[in-house]
Amino acid sequence: MTSRTDEIAAGLEETRERIARAAEKAGRAADEVHLVVVTKFFPASDVRILAGLGVTDVGENRHQEAERKAAECADLGLRWHYIGGLQSNKAAAVAAYADVVESVDRRSLLSRLSRGAGERGQSLDVLLQVSLDPPDREGRAGADPGDVRDLAAEVVATDGLRLRGLMAVAPLGEDPAAAFARLARIREDFLVEHPEATVLSAGMSGDLEQAISHGATHVRVGSAVLGERPTVK
Ligand SMILES: *Cc1c(COP(=O)(O)O)cnc(C)c1O
Fold it and tell me: Ligand 1, from 105, 210, 220, 225: best to mutate by most atoms within 8 Å of Cβ?
């Protein structure tokens, strides 16, 4: 029987190879692309195994689960990325443990994130989540591309928040390469005004190659490393 550690080590190695191959194909250095392992639905014991295998960054998308795991794994020195939908009334609490909030998509979150960061006594890295969905898509997450410029300016003007870049998810039912090509153009405009905010978080288990070919600096990979998630929500 293979142990959970062996299983995770194999998924991790395969994912790191995929990243290296995609970077090479895009003419980029493999160390330009950072791996964030998405640990949602998986136990804190898996997070501990990941840290032992050299993973430095983990992603979570549900506040209560993330808060609990971050507390259980506080000794590991990991960077916690919050990548899920954010309710305004939870934003300050998320800023208490997250090192990066990748899913900032509206202005009303900013003062609460700022308050949470202030209470913690450190600044909070922020990515703006850009929607690549059509405007009428049900359950659309992320800011409209046309709102990114104003939202970025608001983040820069907010105490305790550091604008680091953009995040996006490729829409279902569209070729991810086409979606990430749109994202690359949005990012080009964004970088003119915010040249320091170079992070581009894009690409998951199914489309990390396309994301890397369009400039992703961070890929968020869950199932390819950890296996299928339990389907219950
Ligand atoms: C779950 C999730 C991922 C990881 O998805 P996989 O397909 O398991 O790699 C990446 N990004 C976000 C925003 C997610 O919610």
Answer: 220
